Amino acid sequence: MLPHALERVPVWAGGWKERGRMVLLLDFDGTLAPIVERPELAAMPAATRAALDRLMSLPGVQVAVVSGRGLADVRERAAIPGIAYAGNHGMEIEGAGLRRMHPDAVAARPALEAAARRIEPELARIPGAFLEDKGMTLSIHFRQSPADRHDDVRVAVERGAGDGLRVTSGNMVLEVRPRVEWDKGKAVLFLLDQMRPPPGAPVLYLGDDRTDEDAFRALAGLGGAHEGVLIGDPAGETAARSYLRDPEEVGALFAALAGA
Known about the structure:
The protein has helices at 9-19, 46-56, 71-78, 103-107, 109-123, 150-161, 184-195, 213-222, 247-259; strands spanning 22-26, 61-66, 84-87, 92-95, 98-101, 130-133, 138-141, 165-169, 173-178, 203-207, 226-231, 242-244. The protein has 260 residues and is α/β, with parallel strands linked by helices. Strands 5-4-3-2-1-10-11-12 form an 8-stranded mixed β-sheet, with helices on both faces. The protein has 2 domains: 5-101 and 182-259, HAD superfamily/HAD-like (Rossmann fold, 3-Layer(aba) Sandwich); 106-178, 2-Layer Sandwich (Alpha-Beta Plaits), CATH 3.30.70.1020. Helix 2 (46-56) packs parallel to helix 9 and helix 5 packs antiparallel against helix 6 (150-161).
């Protein structure tokens, strides 16, 4: 059983004090913001934002957001100034002096547009299903669809994606992505290479979805003070080293770290 992340605060605060730095890498949906019926309704709770603002005002705290959302979308919704944002699972990164667009993902844009044209007419026949074009990826949401139509959504997406793209699964969402060797784990390693935290400084990645497992595994591979924090039920298999029950507890963790 994973420990609750609040139990780890003294360890992380101690490493922060000793090394002078702490890095927080944060997913957005299901982590900074609760999961909602439609993606455009997601928002960070005021209490979470206030606690994060307080934490970021303290010396040595670095923050980046790593999201499956498009870069412009997550930057607007998170609205945390002065930080790096990694959108589309890190295929586009910008902020804090960084700018990186994965060239193969940029080149795949025509294939994504063609896939969207094939998929959208099929989704129109399925209540509650809709496609979100995120530029470098497509998200097909079906949280509001009847359970007996979920398989129909998958069939439509897999058939419409074609051979040049791949389909991945998330929390009540399917994603059509370019066939590039890139994910949140590789994005995290890129960000850390730029941030260069000192050895022993706590580096935490908070995420709730299966796509965040790539980041958890990347940090686990680095060892030391690099840790994944799962937001959600800790009963399943995960590479995270601690957990929080829900996004509300994310705000409580920020407050506890600031208070420590």
